[in-house]
Specification:
Length: about 425
């Protein structure tokens, strides 16, 4: 039986969101039961077999779907995302000096799968519909998490130390889950999903989950993200030249706000109930500096450090933590200064395309959501592993934002009328309410 390509696209869209929103991990954990090896070097190195198998399926089927899309669309989009290609190429090459070449290869394939999935679904469904679908998926994850916490509080909640009834939900880490709820709130509010009873129920559910997860980072994400969306929406007009001038005003406001936050840093930490070490993060970073200095230029190979013998001395002193709790430290461990430079070229390229779309896109206001979430992710990456996290929802959403932005920029650039018509035809066939 031949599966129609449109049906395959819908199945692929569902599986991708199911995979990266955390449902796969949750149902796998329910089926196999909690493991005592979680948090160990061996567990980190081996990964989940279920994820690996489904990941390969996503990679192969994603490539197949892209081959069925108009070749002009694919080529133009790939060309506009050459920084991603450079990064993947560098990670593959890092197998040559990696402390764990096999793990570097597997992590690179997993990261490539994430990018292919994000790239593919961006070409399957219209961007506003995709955002709405992601928002609803996050709401479903929150509902499942609350039900799980009620049925099995020993695994769905944290009740240890000075933390009681703190929500973990379907996620293995409360902070990761709280960030997902924060994204859901930002997406739904940004889309204007606030009027119906169902909209309000979704917002209240996500807010409740965010509060009982007790994550200061996620609360800052919501407050900062909503402030940025309000700022970008307030200054946006339908006149490109005005948008350009107002973008400079926005940049000045953001810079002045950043300076003010820096000046009030200690007070803000006290307000959030956090100490100067950011829950021991600064201590961890000081310890990481030694390992970064040992391999400053090229790093330990993508994904290799936390599974290699190099981390044993750290584990003996601190215990196993799986990441440095900072995406910027992680990229130095993964790829050294070269990887750090490639990452910042990618960040700059995405910011450029987001800004250009905000200024000139006919639906520029939707880019208020994208640019706000992206800026928040860049900030939060300082205290959480977001960028280059090969299996996380954070990275998946970031890739979706980047690919939507570069795609829309290509569609709306001069001399791309045929490309625009082709994409409009595809979107008309693949718009879901």
């Amino acid at each position: 039986m031949i599966i129609r390509i449109n049906l395959l696209k819908k199945i692929y869209l569902f599986i991708s969101i199911f995979y990266y929103t955390g449902f796969l991990n949750f149902f796998t954990k329910l089926a196999t039961g909690p493991t005592n090896t979680e948090g160990s070097i061996n567990m980190h190195a081996s990964g989940s077999m279920t994820r690996q198998i489904l990941g390969v399926v996503l990679l192969i089927s994603g490539i197949y779907i892209l081959l069925k899309v108009d070749k002009i669309i694919v080529w133009k989009s790939v060309r506009n995302n050459y920084n991603w290609v450079l990064l993947i190429g560098y990670f593959l090459i890092s197998m040559q000096w990696s402390y764990e070449p096999d793990i570097t290869f597997r992590r690179t394939i997993a990261f490539s799968t994430l990018l292919v999935s994000a790239f593919c679904i961006v070409h399957i469904i219209e961007m506003k519909s995709l955002l709405a679908l992601i928002g609803k998926a996050i709401f479903c994850a929150a509902i499942f998490g609350l039900v799980y916490a009620i049925i099995d509080p020993s695994n769905g909640l944290i009740n240890s130390g000075n933390r009681t009834n703190v929500l973990i939900g379907i996620y293995g880490d409360k902070n990761a889950g709280a960030r997902v709820y924060a994204y859901g709130l930002l997406i739904l509010v940004g889309l204007g999903r606030t009027s119906t009873y169902m909209d309000k129920f979704m917002l209240l559910t996500l807010t409740f989950c965010l509060i009982i997860a007790e994550s200061a980072t996620a609360i800052v994400m919501v407050l900062g993200g909503l402030s940025l969306m309000l700022l970008f929406n307030f200054f946006h007009t339908n006149i490109n030249k005005k948008n350009l001038v107002r973008m400079f005003i926005i940049i000045i406001i953001i810079v002045l706000t950043s300076i003010s936050v820096g000046y009030l840093y200690d007070y803000i930490l006290q307000l959030l109930g956090r100490d100067q070490t950011l829950t021991n993060r600064t201590i961890i970073w000081e310890m990481m500096d030694i390992y970064i200095q040992n391999e400053p230029m090229l790093g330990y190979g993508f994904g290799a450090f936390w599974s290699s013998d190099a981390v044993i001395s750290f584990v003996d002193r601190w215990g196993y933590i799986a990441n440095a709790h900072s995406g910027y430290y992680e990229v130095l461990l993964h790829g050294g200064k070269v990887g750090f430079i490639l990452l910042f070229l990618l960040i700059f390229s995405t910011l450029r395309s987001l800004t250009m779309n905000y200024i000139s896109h006919q639906h520029g206001k939707i880019f208020c959501i994208f640019i706000s979430i992206y800026l928040i992710q860049l900030i939060v990456n300082y205290v959480a592993f977001i960028l280059l996290n090969h299996n996380s929802f954070d990275m998946f959403l970031l890739a979706v934002i980047s690919f939507i932005s570069s795609r829309e920029l290509a569609v709306n650039s001069k001399g791309s009328n045929s490309l625009k018509n082709s994409i409009n035809l595809i979107n008309n066939k693949n718009t879901f309410s």
